[in-house]
Every structure is written in structure tokens, then in C-alpha cells.
Amino acid sequence: MNSLPVLHLLLLLLGLQAPQAQGRSLLTYQPQQNFKMISEIIDILNSSPSPAEETLDPNETNTLLNTTLLRPNLNAFLNATKNFYSNESLIWKNLKEFLPLLPTPTPRGEPIYIENNWSDFQKKLKKYLEALDNFLNFKNKH
């Protein structure tokens, strides 16, 4: 009797169980859940008034849209969030959920610098969320 089909089934079952051992199932991060978490953050950012919409410096925009800097930029936003909210805030919690979804490539350049003021944090985080959403949508389609 050939044990190859049994081995394939066993490997499939182990593959489905491994992420659960880390506290997450494979089905946890579907595009709808990612979109919901990003939307919740944007709603919070939009709920407080922002000064006249300042445009980002082209270098800052490039830094925020650079896919090799997604993880370092996320770390910068997690640290900056502490200036405005506690670690228990929805923004911080949602941002932290994206860490396991991002690769750890060798960054090409420095992560974004976030000034200690709300408007800088707000406009840069909105642009970063756009890049994060694009990356996650691309990742889920391929």
C-alpha cells in the first residue's frame, strides 16, 4: 500500500495547524479584515480636525510608499502612536496586527521620521495606510 496520499494529507493538516499554534489561523487575515482594521484607523484619524491639508514632501511620500520600508515604517508609527495614545488604543492595536503580515526585507533607506505633532502623524499615517493596503491587496491576489 502506498503511503504517499496519507503523507500529503498529514502535511496539509500540519500546515493548517501551525499558524494556530502561533495564535492565528490561516483564515484570520482575509482582505476584508485588513480593510476593516485600516478603515477603523482612518476613521479615528478623520474624527479629529486636521489643519489645512498639507502635502507631503516627495521624499517622505517615496519613503512611505517604499515596500522595503513597510515594516520599519510600521515600527516608526507604532512608536509615534505612543505620543498621542496609550498602547491599548485601537490605532496601536490595529497597527500591531499588521506586523506578522509584513516581510522583513533589507530596507533600502531610512524609515519615515514622524514629528511629535498630531498633524504630521495624521497625514503620514494616512499615506502609509494607503501603501499598506496596496501591499496587502497585491499579496492576497498573488
Automatic annotation (TrEMBL):
Entry coiled-coil feature ranges: none
Name of the protein in question: Interleukin-3
Entry similarity comment: Belongs to the IL-3 family.
Cited InterPro entries: 4_helix_cytokine-like_core, IL-3
Pfam families: IL3
Gene Ontology biological process terms from the UniProt entry: immune response
GO MF terms held by the record: cytokine activity; growth factor activity; interleukin-3 receptor binding
CC annotations in GO: extracellular space
